Predict the structure.
Amino acid sequence: MTGDALAGGFDPAAFAEPGRFDVGRADNPHITFGAGIHFCLGAPLARLELVASFGALLQRAPALALAAEPRWAPGYVIRGLEQLLVTVRRRPRLHQRAADAAAGGSPWPGAAR
């Protein structure tokens, strides 16, 4: 008998919507980075990298949306995505910057012309 640590976040007895990705989920005593003497020394760096990378992604693509259901790669020990199709809509402001640049102006607000 073995346990699947990756299934912990999908427990309907513990979470109202276990299948929904919710980074702000309260009362989530996960053990993603281990615990006690087995706590991952790189956990603070990993958290910082996630905040920076997701922050940059969502700033550049705030309307990021799934284009299809994610396809998960087979695997028992490490669960990962095989395919994640998304749609990205550009912000209108970026189109305006391109139009300004094409008209001979600066594409960056406040830049010298």
Q: What stands out?
A: The longest strand covers residues 80-83. Strands lie at 65-66, 71-73, 80-83, 86-87. Helices lie at 43-60, 92-102.
